[in-house]
Specification:
heterodimer; A: 395 residues; Aspartate Aminotransferase, domain 1; Aspartate Aminotransferase, domain 2; 2 domains; 14% strand; B: alpha+beta; Sufe protein. Chain: A; Arc Repressor Mutant, subunit A; 3-stranded antiparallel beta sheet; two-stranded antiparallel ribbon
């Protein structure tokens, strides 16, 4: 059976060149903090990789801090700039207790902010429009003298919508407020330039751009100091203790290099495949809704609501046919509440339950899409025939 | 996540469809919660269920629960069928993940609803009106509904219904809520 992986927003496979560089460095075991030649060899590799990661987002090397995952990067920024410890409080940091964010952020942004909310912080949870866009005017209006941080994701993981982050960063700057963006889904796929966009903080993650799990990074603009999440040694300028994940860092460096080199080529090819998938789903299957913004969207993400059936059923039937996708509903993860993102764009519960995310990656080709378009209408039809809601519609 | 039997009943559902001349139909659930089950029964003059079919909007365990439930009642007397509990359905499937137990509750409810309708019993008359949480006036039915909608810990029930969150701080009702939960989750607990 053909295997088609269309869940690249969840995680990506290793790029062959990344795999190669990992294999080549398996014996590079030295501690990058050691002064002897074993250590210095590792240090050199780590710093070369840092330069490449910095290059990917047009930062300088000293602005890149390596972490273990996107969630850690997000937590580090949110908790690091709001830390109550006056000894580690950066002198120029805004001192207020108000945060602005959106309703469609990743749980690793939502939950640390909820934790601060419980500690007495005020939070503005900004709504989004039906495409999932945050209105920069609302950001401007939400700013108070107490505002310390604005955090808005660059692109949404579920529906792909790309936010006007440059505009929001400008507003933040004018008001002397820090701006952070969770760019985990965007970096490597889109051109992200922290200088041009005016970011203070940016999170990125290795396993979304063909590097392994367990390695990520956060960009912290030169001159800003944040409190560490992990107190420890002097590693990563004291902002993130713990011996460097040398292999992971080298892999992320390679993945960054490959991403810059291949970005244009992939963008064009995968947008064409995504558009083919979108158009033919609309042609072949009745009663569907395409979610997200028609243009301001991640080029490889397609969120589709199939009315009158439930997402997990679609996922498992596709999986049985060798096609891997994900649901927009959280049903399979333990709660019956559908995705907060789909509810925030105004999708009613019953439609949010029937939503599937297709996310393409560099390994996909035209045949994958053709195969999916062959299997999908049959799966949808079978499930609808099983649904009492569909029977009502047909009559 | 699911065992092979659940997957089998989901991928190859038995008794899927409608019975045009059914003399009992039961529908439970709501599209908003993500599950709707409809069961059609053909009951003969002796009260024996001659045929049963289902249609389900929902996840794999909802489809599997309703499918196996129809198999369990065909050939049985309605009095026997009415005794089938959600645990019997979970048993028959060889277990469900904890947060999917509510699917078996819905399947049992759908059968009971169909038979009650056949017998002319109104659904409201079935359940005794009683407050489990007296402080916040939460009924047993509300708690069962919360479980059916995916609450599978006391905390989740508390969040959904307010039970155990009243003045007494749950001193009186926490144990009752735990009991109700246990009834639904019993099988899973025994597995461990």
């Amino acid at each position: 059976m053909r295997k088609v992986y269309l869940d690249n927003n969840a995680t990506t496979p290793l790029h062959p060149e990344v795999k190669q560089v990992i294999e080549k460095n398996l014996d590079l075991f030295g501690n990058a903090s050691s002064a002897h030649f074993f250590g210095q060899e590792a240090r050199k590799a780590v710093e070369q990789a840092r330069k490449k990661v910095a290059g990917l987002i047009n930062a300088s090397s000293e602005e890149i801090i390596f972490t273990s995952c996107g969630s850690e990067s997000n937590n580090l920024v949110i908790k690091g700039v709001t830390c109550p410890d006056i000894h580690c409080k950066p002198t120029d940091a805004p001192a207020g207790r108000h945060i602005i964010t959106s309703q469609i952020e990743h749980p690793s942004v939502i939950n640390p902010i909820k934790s601060l909310e419980r500690q007495g912080f005020k939070v503005s949870w900004l709504p989004v429009d039906k495409y999932g866009l945050v209105d920069p005017d609302l950001v401007k209006k939400a700013i108070t003298r107490q505002t310390v941080l604005i955090t808005i994701m660059t692109a949404n993981n579920e529906i792909g919508t790309i936010q006007p982050v440059a505009e929001i960063a400008k507003i933040a700057k004018e008001n002397n407020v820090y701006f952070h963006t969770d760019a985990v889904q965007a970096v490597g796929k889109l051109e992200v330039d922290v200088k041009e966009m005016g970011m203070d903080f940016l999170s990125l993650s290795g396993h979304k751009l063909y590097a392994p799990k367990g390695i990520a990074a956060v960009y912290i603009r030169k001159g800003i100091n944040v409190c560490p999440l992990l107190d420890g040694g002097h590693q990563e300028r004291g902002i993130r203790g713990g011996t460097e994940n040398t292999l992971g860092i080298i892999a992320l460096g390679k993945a960054s290099e490959v991403a810059i080199r291949d970005r244009e080529k992939n963008l064009e090819r995968l947008w064409r495949l995504r558009e083919k998938l979108r158009k033919e789903i609309l042609e072949k299957i009745p009663e569907v809704i395409i979610n997200g913004h028609p243009e301001k969207t991640l080029p490889f993400t397609l969120s589709v609501t199939f009315k009158y059936i439930e997402g997990e059923s679609i996922l498992l039937r596709l999986s049985a046919n060798g096609i891997a996708v994900s649901t927009g509903s959280a049903c399979s993860s333990g709660s019956l509440e559908p995705s907060h993102v789909l509810l925030a764009i105004g999708l009613p519960h019953e439609l949010a339950h029937g939503t599937i995310r297709f996310s393409l990656g560099i390994e996909n080709d035209e045949e994958d899409i053709d195969y999916t378009l062959k299997v999908l209408p049959k799966v949808i039809q079978e499930l609808r025939e099983m649904s009492p809601l569909w029977a009502g519609i047909k009559k | 996540m699911y065992n092979d039997k659940v997957i089998d009943y989901f991928q190859n559902p038995r008794n899927m469809g409608e019975i045009p001349d059914a003399n009992a139909v039961g529908e439970v659930g709501s599209p908003v919660c993500g599950d709707v089950m409809k069961i059609w029964l053909k009951i003969d003059e002796k009260g024996i269920i001659k045929d049963a079919k289902f249609k389900t909007f929902g996840c794999a365990s909802a489809v599997a629960s309703s499918s196996i439930a129809t198999e369990m009642i065909i050939g049985r007397h309605i009095n026997q069928a009415k005794k089938i509990t959600n645990q019997d359905i979970v048993n028959a499937l060889g277990g469900l993940p904890e947060h999917k137990i509510h699917c078996s509750v819905l399947a049992a409810d759908a059968i009971h609803r169909a038979i009650d309708k056949y017998l002319g019993i109104e659904p409201e008359a079935e359940k005794e009106f009683e407050y489990v949480c007296k402080c916040n006036k939460v009924t047993r039915e509300q708690i069962e509904q919360a479980i059916a909608r995916g609450a599978w810990t006391v905390e989740m029930i508390a969040e959904a219904t307010g039970a155990t969150q009243g003045e007494c701080g749950g001193v009186r009702c926490k144990i009752l809520v735990e009991d109700i939960l246990k009834q639904y989750l019993k099988l899973k607990k025994e597995d461990k």
